[in-house]
């Protein structure tokens, strides 16, 4: 059985999440449990979908129909992270500024910058390479 296709996106999610937690904790000089979630460097979503697309490319080639599907899914997720979710965060900021201080604020940190997305893509490709290499030596 080829465990790589299931393990790769999970590993990318885990590595990206741990890295994001470490970066946020370093920036705030304390454990950043309150900053876990959407937004931040690297993008978990970008790491997950790019790791899958990269693993398909490594194992089946870029001419494979499976690679086409994986790249299509990756583009949808990357566009969503960079545009739609960033706009949702901006709307949350505007709504929070209009609401009083007695209400619970909406989460403003939602989308990703291009740098955060690029970091997620790079991380996802690195995880796919590692999984591909590990699979070859086992």
Automatic annotation (TrEMBL):
Membrane-spanning intervals of the chain: 6-23, 117-135
Originating organism: Ottowia testudinis
Keyword set, alphabetical order: Membrane, Transmembrane, Transmembrane helix
Protein name: Divergent PAP2 family protein
Higher taxonomy: Bacteria, Pseudomonadati, Pseudomonadota, Betaproteobacteria, Burkholderiales
InterPro entries: DUF212 (IPR003832)
A Pfam family of this chain: DUF212
